Input
Amino acid sequence: MRHYQVRDVMTASPVTVTPATPLKNVADILVRGRIGVVPVLTPQGRVAGVVAEGDLLRKERLQRDPEGRHSAHLPYRIRRDIATAETAGELMDRYPATVPSDTSVAEAARLMDRHQSRFLLVTSEDGKLLGVVTARDLLRVFLRPDAAIKAEISRNILSHYLGTNPALVQVEVADGVVRLTGELERKSMLPAALRAVRAVDGVIDVESQLGYAIDDISLPLDTDQLT
Output
């Protein structure tokens, strides 16, 4: 069962700047492109850093408030450098979070949460930029058509993963909510089936009324223990 990967939802070949790009140009790219982040690349095409809209807003605040009352947690030298920055290289975050393109959407979401970031840079093994993925991009998984979700459950989970006859199980999907009715061959298949269906990309919730033909979990009573 293949899950959506970062490469499926990222913005490939995003607009980039160099460390020498003036911040006015960076702001223009952010505003005109309606994006939240601009990668900064070296002349060799490798990631040098990133400038986010929040960085420019912080600079604006520190210019208006040199004492940095809104950024008191930052050392004075850093506040001064941010306030006086004129180029992307002077303002950029030099250590942005990056991921390979084959990272699953679920893992990318965990990384964003861990780094408290709303974006990740997607890079190749040699450090070159492949794309940018944002929190909004990850939400595209939930827009997956119900018909595609239903087809994957019937084909990949019921037929291939569980090895059961898909005709025995009725699958209904409405707005990402899956409803399962019918019967599986064995009781032990129920937990695995529900786990697998919940893991399908785009599934919001699962409602199950599945039964089973054979109870292969309950052990027969050992009559020797009664004597």
Observations:
- The first strand starts at residue 11 and ends at 12.
- Strands lie at 11-12, 37-41, 47-52, 98-99, 119-123, 129-134, 169-174, 177-186, 205-214.
